[in-house]
Amino acid sequence: MRVALAVHPASGHGAAGRVAGAVSAKLRAVADEVTVVSATSVAESRALMLRARDAGLDLVVVLGGDGSAHQGVQFCAEHGVDLAVVPAGTGNDLVRALGGPGEPLAAADALVAAIGSGARRRLDLGRVGDGPWFATVLCAGFDSAVNERVNRMRWPHGRRRYDLAIVAELARLRPRRLVLDTDSGRVETDAVLVAVGNTAFYGGGIPVCPDADPADGLFDVTVLGRASRLDLLRILPTLRTGKHVEHPAVRTFRAAKAVLGGDNDWVAYADGERLRPLPVAVECVPGALSVVG
User: Fold this and answer.
1) Do residue 149 and residue 280 come from a single domain?
2) Where do the DAGKc domain residues begin and end (predicted)?
3) How much is the pLDDT for 184?
4) Is 213 found in the same domain as 261?
5) What confidence tens digit (pLDDT) does each residue in 202-250 have?
6) Is residue 111 domain-shared with residue 138, that is, in the same domain?
7) Degrees (nearest 5) of the Cα angle 108, 110, 111?
8) Are residues 155 and 278 in the same domain?
9) Which of 14, 52, 107, 201 has its CA 20 to 30 A from that of 248?
């Protein structure tokens, strides 16, 4: 077993860097070779993982958050290498969806056990055109506008930044025209947001697509239609429980393919990472990723 441990030291406000040594030591107990790849940028991470692949590689273990996991997904899906994620970020939505421990050292212990037993499973992935893959949720609308604002802010840190961004975006909220073409038909509606879920969670544990299953070959799609600021304030607390799907302004359905467009200025985000403005075409690719654990 030849393992690359991809560490993003800044993930989780430095949590990944602090536990990297302990995680590496646990992996060395079951792997023949462990190469530690420590990167501070996406380009550096990809270059180092390619170097590890060329030297022979069976498994990439990502130690970091959802942004780090997103980069691991790109590499492993493209090169047919197994992936495992040890959570050390602020969201950890992919690990949450897979049902793994949320604490890094406990997750590393579980991974060591999985390597020893040979436990593997195949997961679906979403793909945007012929470009990036995503493992969790692609979204556009109010939630991506909050992400855009958060990325421009330098203060405060943590959840308070998101809270302030939500308040600011609520002040400028208005429904926009969404056109959603899927393999099962077309939806044209005024909407506040759309989420295309391979898994249930985004935003640090929000089950926006609560019934999404990453092994059924289909996306779960959630559309929040025309809603006022007051409506959205009433819906937001139910997002944490998945009860938002019971609101009359929310529509849900399943699709293997979708094209998101319409007369709006929305930007698509996937796995919490900025992609590009709409329109975007997405497809669910069954069994595209092999995961250890």
Assistant:
1) yes
2) 1-132
3) 82
4) yes
5) 988 899 999 999 999 999 999 999 988 888 889 988 988 999 999 999 9
6) no
7) 60
8) yes
9) 201
